[in-house]
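Hello again,

I reread your note about wanting to compare the complex against the isolated chains. To keep things tidy I'm splitting this into two emails, and this first one only covers the full assembly. Below are the input lines as submitted, including protein chains and any nucleic acid or small-molecule components. They are followed by the predicted structure of everything together. The single-chain runs will come separately.
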Amino acid sequence: MKVFKIPEATVMRLSIYSRYLRQLIEEGVETVSSGEIAAGVGVSSAQVRKDLAYFGEFGTRGVGYKVEDLYGCLLKILGLDRRWNIIIIGAGKLGSAFALYQGFLDRGFTISAIMDVDEKIIGSELDGVKIEPLELLQQRVTEKNITVGVITVPAPAAQDVTDLLVASGVKAILNFSPRVLKVPNDVILRNVDLSVNLELLSFYLALNNR
Amino acid sequence: MKVFKIPEATVMRLSIYSRYLRQLIEEGVETVSSGEIAAGVGVSSAQVRKDLAYFGEFGTRGVGYKVEDLYGCLLKILGLDRRWNIIIIGAGKLGSAFALYQGFLDRGFTISAIMDVDEKIIGSELDGVKIEPLELLQQRVTEKNITVGVITVPAPAAQDVTDLLVASGVKAILNFSPRVLKVPNDVILRNVDLSVNLELLSFYLALNNR
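Full-complex prediction:
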């Protein structure tokens, strides 16, 4: 399977398509056309076909895609046919929200550890996972085979936490802090800066009011 | 200023550049080159120059950009030279985290209203804003001149809440629910699905382990 040079936007849409396919499965739908997927998620059907074409031939012309098969393929492409263990650093509001977020629980991700520096919350639990002191980070990453770190600490602490995660062997980081972080080339970093998303809205709103 | 057909990825990078420039201002830095911005945020310097070129000539060859001036220009481009009023629907963990998030407080956004359906939390406050019943949505949007809606309700309620926001005149929506939403063409929708971001990581992790 040729999966190099897939645009990031395509991968994000695959994730969204797969979510939509799951809705269809829940609704008992068995086949779907690219046009129906397109309408369901708000892109063009040409875009759906182009995105899926990166990964070979799915579906049958005139018949469409078998929902369950396509869903299974997308899960595999997205790396969701296995388990990924997550460590959350920062058990404040945002970290807690992330820990309790239901959207990914059935999609291959397990929250294996939650760390904080605040002694008032260390020892309490979030969704069955105990909040532990930051000092145990390296040990937990190793013994729980953790590959994904989620950073929900205040901005000034974010780079130090990143360095700790990298040193402990974490290979992918989701950064919620409003800070530009540095990581080595072999570590994947995604910034989920809430501001960036909000500022995309203000950009388009301002555009309409110029 | 020609601002049509700007790629979304460019707008997102402008937001990140502007954040980095603010860091530089805090550090007392007065001028910066495209190479330094590039290194600071982890893109190529050609990318920085290309992104900025959409909006005309900034900077001086061999001297670079005046940090304060460029920051001011970017804020204007991003529509952050004015105030945007936000309504949050859903005051659970995620809504609360968003309401208390510090990243955008000084960037032109004001949380003007927070709604929920849970009588146990209606009447309590989040960062000085009272949580009110969903029935007051239309009224609050009108009287507080709200243009941005943030959806942090469970997935099954998301489309109904979206329809309410659209009917009340909100023109931009940030959707955190793991649900594909439908909006009219004149409403801007951004999905900040935490799963999508996590699944980008698993895609790349799986790619390295195929």
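For quick reference: Chain B touches chain A through 71 residues (CB under 8 Å).

B.
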